[in-house]
Amino acid sequence: MSVPLKDLEKQQNCKSSKRKRHNSDSEDEDEDENSTWMNNIVDRYKGRPHIDIFIKLCLARFTSEYSVILESQLPQKINKDTTFKLDGSLGYIRKRTRTSPAVIKYPRFSPENSPEKYYQSILQLYLPYRYDEQLKPLLFQTYENFFTCGRVKFQGDNTLSSVKEIVIKNMSDFVKNGHDLEEAEKQFHEKDPKEDAWCELCPEAEVNRRECIDEGKVSSVIEEDLSIPDLNEKSSSSVGTNLLSVSLTKNEIIPRLRSLNVKQRRILYKVRDWCIQKANGKTPEPLHLFITGGAGTGKSHLIKCIQYEATRILAQTTNNPDDLTVLLTAPTGTAAFNIHGLTIHSALGIFKSLSPDHATLSEDKINSLRSKLEHLQILIIDEISMVNKKLLFFVHERLRQVKKRPDNCLFGGVSIIAVGDFYQLPPVRTKRVDKLYVDDPSNPSNQLWNGLFEIAELDEIMRQREDGMFAELLNRLRVKQKNESLSSSDKETLQHCFGDSPDEALHIYSTNAEVDTFNKEMIMKQCTESKLIEAQDFPKRQNFREIDSEKTL
Ligand SMILES: Nc1ncnc2c1ncn2[C@@H]1O[C@H](COP(=O)(O)OP(=O)(O)OP(=O)(O)O)[C@@H](O)[C@H]1O
User: Fold this and answer.
1) Per the domain annotation, does 306 fall within a domain?
2) What is the pLDDT, as a whole number, of residue 221?
3) 119 plus 90 within the same structural domain
4) CA within 20 to 30 Å of 78's CA: 43, 136, 292, 534, which one?
5) Relative to the CA of 421, which ligand 1 atom is closest?
6) Based on the structure, what is the number of domains in the chain?
7) Is any ligand 1 atom within 6 A of the Cβ of residue 385?
8) What gap in Å lies between CA 61 and CA 66, rounded to an integer?
9) What is the per-residue pLDDT for 542?
């Protein structure tokens, strides 16, 4: 808005308008100078000229359409159509030259809580008057009463007009969406004001704001060398080493946060809200969230953002910002490597054999794990489709043990964000009934998954987002049953894709025979000169680890 806000508060005195403004607008400057001698805006309104255009002019319109000028600033030739002298020594007013009138600002009262103040205020603003008594003539007990039943006659007009109609008509020019705003304000006060509500309305602005705040601060995310314990020789001797998994740096994460699509963003903010509650000392129920979606819908992309954001916020809940609050894991080394996380087994000291006897850790090891996971609040498990009921049970038990929580405390009170797609890889060597999604109430581990997790589904394929048709085809293939045949157009699209792919590209075949053929072909292509080396096989003696060189097979 290019014109200044006006404060119509009745009691406002001239001093309050002496505030320095950095606006070079001449009308504004006039106003400041005038404020040093004027009484207040209401006095100036009452002292308006007794000519036709001012008779039915209400205070709101007077303030928004006229500005006060000093006598010394009067031009030599006064434009009598636009400049007017006020009564007494109140100065001059000039019609604003702007195309739009000024916005006016005034105290708002609730008609329910302060009816008298409310009706006094709207009468003062929208009913033309010259003396205060005209706002509540003696015959009327209250302002409300006058507003509802009063009638007035203006100078030079013999007809009686309803006060209510005049006020409502004038008010409609100034108060836009007033009822909605009042309702919104009421709801805002009734409900708990939402933390960070702005980031829901305008997440990009929130990212920018945060960027500004963070400028110069050290990132709370720990950056260190990549360490995947399962692939790291040294790690086998100790449990949960290097639990501080590598996260992205701020510069890497900001573009990711900005790029999130609507659904990804919604999920991020759900987790974020939970973290903010925690950071504010509240005790929300642990999250049990399952983020699913087809291949390439951005699940891994999202969990990196969640990990960054949750770590950043939850750092406020501990004395040491380096304490581990969010742990990013996956069931296999490769899956963990892809997300720069840890395997579930190494992070929680769970042995691959998965037998309860082997699951117990020595007191030393459990204490060491406890000290590392003391502040853990969120465990993210990627590729959940590869986790079976047994493994999830071990996760629950280990977290319970580490957090010293009773049997019935699911996952020791730690929030679990499971991410994956059950149409993708299943757990290895697992019977159908032990797969997570199979609802089997007779299995005590069933309660750790079925009916517990809230599902959030991503459905926009981001990997092939430039090729919408192909992305849709992938979605159809994802849910296709073996006995369902492909539509002819889908077949055509797939055949079209089946062109010459570069040799070095990863090739996927459905049978080992096809894999062997391709490998042989490639070897022949790359190694044109062949050498024959004859193999010799020797039997190994059972207990002596010696090779029986005499007995060649
Ligand atoms: N909002 C986004 N904006 C831009 N690129 C995105 C977005 N979300 C994901 N991507 C990109 O799309 C690709 C696929 O994303 P991602 O690997 O996270 O999907 P996924 O659901 O984990 O896939 P999969 O199930 O195959 O592991 C990646 O290259 C990722 O960087």
Assistant:
1) yes
2) 32
3) no
4) 43
5) 25
6) 3
7) no
8) 8
9) 58
